[in-house]
């Protein structure tokens, strides 16, 4: 059963870095998306990577700061977040678009409704 699990969140100062990890059994066969949701806001799509790792896309506001990658041998997908800003504070989720396997070929991350397996989230707080 696909149950993504996120880890790696925490408290970091502005300008700092965190690396989030998403894992579940069989992850190597699926594209993975990263999302975030701040209190009072809708869930926002940040990035997506295809199962092969050859296709990626990013939200404009994180381009050049966030990097998605994966290690299929370990069933893990990562989101490296650098130059963090207070406005990056949110609960971060990974999700699998099992019914939309080609979703990462688009120019921009697809919305949450296109994903069907979700993790519980990990809190990221950027504050001095």
Structure description:
The protein is 0% helix and 41% strand. With 128 residues, the protein is mainly β. It is globular, with a radius of gyration of 13 Å.
The portion of residues assigned to helices is under 10%
Mean pLDDT: 96
Number of DSSP helices?
A: 0
- Output the helix-strand order: EEEEEEEEEEE
Stretches where pLDDT falls below 50 for ≥5 residues? none
Q: What sort of overall outline do the alpha carbons produce when their principal axes are compared? A: globular
| Number of DSSP E strands | 11
What's a quick, concise take on this entry?
This protein has no helices and eleven strands.
Write the layout of secondary structure elements.
Elements (H helix, E strand, L loop, with lengths): L4 E3 L2 E3 L5 E6 L8 E6 L6 E6 L6 E3 L7 E6 L4 E6 L8 E7 L20 E2 L3 E5 L2
Parallel strand pairs: 2-11
Antiparallel strand pairs: 1-3, 3-8, 4-5, 4-9, 5-6, 7-8, 9-10, 9-11
Keywords:
128 residues; mainly beta; seven-stranded mixed sheet; four-stranded antiparallel sheet
């Amino acid at each position: 059963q696909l149950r993504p699990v996120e880890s790696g969140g925490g408290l970091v100062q502005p300008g700092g870095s965190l690396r989030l990890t998403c894992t579940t059994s069989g992850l190597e066969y699926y594209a993975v998306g990263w999302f975030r949701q701040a209190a009072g806001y809708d869930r926002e799509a940040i990035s997506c990577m295809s199962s092969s790792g050859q296709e990626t896309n990013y939200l404009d506001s994180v381009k050049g700061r966030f990097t998605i990658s994966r290690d299929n041998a370990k069933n893990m997908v990562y989101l490296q977040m650098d130059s963090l800003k207070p406005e990056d504070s949110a609960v971060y989720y990974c999700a699998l678009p099992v019914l939309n396997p080609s979703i990462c070929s688009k120019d921009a991350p697809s919305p949450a409704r296109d994903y069907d397996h979700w993790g519980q989230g990990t809190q990221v707080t950027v504050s001095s």
